[in-house]
Structure formats: C-alpha cells, structure tokens
Write a structure and sequence with these properties.
By secondary structure, the protein is α+β, with helices and mostly antiparallel strands. 18% of the residues lie in helices and 26% in strands. The protein has one domain (5-142). The chain has 4 helices and 7 strands.
C-alpha cells in the first residue's frame, strides 16, 4: 500500500437527503451512488478510512454527505501519487466512466484551477467498485474492514485468474 495518492470514494445514499454543505449552502441529494475524487499527500489509507468512519467534525464537503443518515460507504479506488495522473484528470475519467451528473457545483472543488465543475459525481444506477477501479491501471481498492487489494484488471473476469 502506498502512503500518498489519489482516491475515488464510492458511497451509496439509500434515501434522498437535503443537506447544508458549508458555504455551498443547502442542496438536495437524491438516493443513488456518489463518487468523490480527492487526494492525500500523506496518510492516504487514513484519509480514506476517515471518510467511512463516524466523525463529529466536518472538515471537507464530503463529510456532510458521509454523515447523512442513510449514507453507506462502499469503498475507495486508490491510485499512487506517481501514477502520472492528476486529481482533476482522474475526476474527469470517473465522470466519463459513469456518465455522471454533477449534483452540486464546486463540491470538493472549491480550490480547483483546472475547471472541474465538481469533484463529486452522481449515478442513479448502481456503480461497481471493481468496475470503477478500471479508471487507472495502477488502481487498488480499499473497503471498510478489508485489506488493500490491487487486482489485475487485465485478467480479472477472463477465467484464468485463480482468485
């Protein structure tokens, strides 16, 4: 496992919620699947773990969504910092993969200089964590209560992978 990198946090909101997202104000979030792209210069596993743990302090925009009553963390796709991709490029790939809708402009991207509308995408259709890992060839997966896993996405599903 690497200490610094990028991540795409996947969560499911089981029922609609209206939330106040700091300075972004009050917004309605429909039930469905949310993908949040972020980065950590150090302590990547701890950052991701924080997103699916109970917390009393809301530091980032995503904290408001992860503490919603019916939010359910699925896991995170993680990419090492030296993988040759920026946070914004990863974010754009995720949006293209899932034909994602931007539920709140500037969510997670208030300091973005690359022109991203947000670093949060929404999908009404289910999103697979393993499918999302196809966003980058060096991607690994973190899930609540499980160890880090870096699948071989080239052979996965072909029948010759013994896992």
């Amino acid at each position: 496992m690497f200490d610094a990198g990028l991540y795409v946090f996947l969560l499911r909101l089981k029922s609609p919620a209206t939330l106040v997202i700091g300075a972004l104000g009050e917004h309605h979030f429909p039930a469905g699947w949310y993908m949040y792209t972020g980065s950590a210069r150090k302590s990547l596993p701890q950052r991701v773990t924080r997103h699916w743990s109970l917390k009393t302090t809301r530091h980032w925009h995503i904290d408001h969504l992860t503490t919603a009553l019916d939010s359910e963390p699925v896991g995170a796709v993680v990419v090492p910092i030296g993988a040759g991709i920026s946070e914004c490029d990863l974010n754009r790939r995720v949006g293209a993969m899932v034909a994602g809708q931007v539920p709140v402009q500037k969510f997670g991207a208030s300091d973005c200089r690359a022109g991203c509308p947000a670093h949060l995408y929404f999908s009404g259709a289910p999103v697979s964590l393993l499918g999302l890992a196809r966003v980058h060839e060096l991607a690994g997966i973190l899930m609540p209560g499980a160890d880090f896993w870096q699948p071989d996405l080239q052979t996965l599903g072909r029948g010759d992978d013994p896992r």
